[in-house]
Amino acid sequence: MKFLSKINRQYLIVISLLLFFVSILGYFTLKIILQKEMKEDIYEKEYAIIQEIKTENRLPNLYPIFETKRVVSIKKEPKSYQDIYLKDEAEDELEPYVEYTNTVEVDGEYYVIKIRHSLLENDDLIMAIALPLLLLLVLALIASFFMTKKLNKTLWKDFEENLRYLESFSFNDKKKLNLKDTGVLEFDKLNTTLEVLTDKLQSDYEVLKQFTENASHEIQTPLAIVLLNLEELLQIELPEQSFKQLHTAINGVKRLSSLNKSLILLSKIENKQFTNNQRVQMNDLVARRVQEFEPLLEQKKLKFSFVKSTNSFWIDINEELAEILINNLLSNAIKHNVQNGEISIEISEDSIQICNTGAPNSLDNDTIFNRFTKENSQSYGLGLAIAQQICGRNHLEIIYLKSDIHCFKITK
Amino acid sequence: MKILIVEDEKDMLFAMSNFLTKEQYICELADSFAAASEKIGIYQYDVILLDITLPDGNGLHLLQHIKKYNLQAGVIIISAKNSLDDKISGLDLGADDYMTKPFQLSELNSRIKAVLRRRKYEGSSMISFNEINIDTDGKELRVNKNKVKLTLKEYDILMYFMVNKNRVLTKEAIAEHLWDDNIDLADNFDFIYTHLNNIRRKIKAAGGQDYIRTIYGMGYKFTDE
Fold it and tell me: A96: cis peptide before it, omega within 30°?
């Protein structure tokens, strides 16, 4: 729920409750005042009737408003009020009245005076109070609706603009967070806090990135020292067992180093450190790469087919990355191939597809590009992750299609 | 041949200088930017191995010194960063080659020799081993005066052997020498074997001896011992 709607809802609930209590209070107050008025009115009428009897010696009667009767009884009845209902001939319904009965003595004679006062019906009274209040409530509702709408347009506009800006903010852009001034104290306070926070996060992020990069680079030097010394040991005449152990150790160090290089490459791609894109003609690039891989193709006796369309496939990319991309896909196609298998490459105007025969695997399009996902221990599981990163950063789509053969398709 | 090794990592420095001394080079060592720039200003070198990440300065700036005082020296940049940008700016500043850590000594040796050849040291462009002679200018192999035709890869392998004679070279080292860093060669290097057999066959056919010794099926050594 929107902030303003939430506030409005609370307001309306409170106002409704208040109005409810006010109307109850109003109802009883009004009732008391009306009763007081009524009594005064009755006394005035009684006084007037007594005067009439005294001066005019007439018994005034006006049904149903007042009645006067002479009585012989000297039993003086006390004053009494009584609620009664009388039939109203005009409206043909029972109307409530208060009947005042009193016995008075005028010049030694006794008279009973009945004065009736029409009562407002309770419903009428309630209506008289509730209606305006209800109207007030409706008006408040309508007013709050339009006010919310207007405030959303004005007051919240800058806030929402800032929100959209924040959503698209990335530390990789190395830009400072620059939020719009809203003129609202709370929002501006939030902006300042966010700006301070992101500044700190950004510098932390930079430090961490720098650290990872430096650490990765620094690892290469001790690896180089290990490798140089192991290589020198290899020059000594060694028994086969020791030679083999040394050889295994050397290959282990090399693996470590190449794994490290792959991680550095991944982080470099992620950090967009490959700039100077140029238009690269993929047809020739793929052909050149394939040539490099020829000994590996021959070794596995792979049947190779290469179909090129007449129109070349061009992409805007850093050429080094384009080479790495094709290298990774080619070595993947060779590595996971079977002896006497097949590799086919198809390049069209807007796509490259590299397919290879190979053992079935349990991977699919969602998992195959994950880092360190591997089906055998020969690889690190980084080649395809790198390929996907390269594609992602260069507005290319790469998908894995699995049928009886394995295919990777890159499209613009 | 006089070589200056600029490298701040002591273990690295000693490993390289031990090897190069054995290979009959005269080595001088500098473990900082300051020491290196002093040496470059005073002495003349044939080859300078330059680590560009030094604690007290960027090795790339040393290149400008070298171009000023040590023009005839060949420069091989040794970097922990496999960065094309560094490579390009290094080569633009006049370096002859760029190597990424970690590397193998046989590879370093081969690169140094290549730089020296390019700079026309060692008198001629001829490399010889008994009856085997290579003219590096024309990429031509002669065995007992008989011309032998090699493929490019076979020539590269033979050159690598000739430069690193009497050294054990693993098949991985040979494969890495032939293919650039960016290719993931997997664990299978048996295709090297095919190339070696071709070289052996061609040299024998021209009347040469087979100097390639296989070591436990894991490495090779080019030797007449």
Answer: no
CB contact under 8 A, B218 and A223: no
A240 contacts in B (CB within 8 Å)? 216
pLDDT tens string A61-101 = 887 788 888 887 666 667 888 888 888 777 777 888 888 88
For chain A, the distance separating the N- and C-terminal CA atoms, rounded to the nearest angstrom, is 41
Q: How many residues belong to chain A?
A: 412
Chain mean position to CA A230: 58
| pLDDT tens, position by position, A163-221 | 888 888 877 677 788 888 888 888 889 989 999 998 898 888 888 878 887 888 888 88
Please state the ipTM of this predicted complex: 0.85
CB contact under 8 A, A235 and B183: no
Q: Which of B66, B90, B61, B93 is nearest to B78 (CA)?
A: B90
Closest CB from A234, A257, A295 relative to B168:
A234
A364 at the B interface (CB within 8 A)? no
Q: Which of A341, A342, A323 is nearest to A390 (CA)?
A: A323
A7 in contact with chain B, both atoms CB, cutoff 8 A: no
Where do runs of H (alpha helix) occur along chain B?
A: 10-22, 33-42, 59-69, 84-92, 105-118, 152-163, 171-178, 191-205
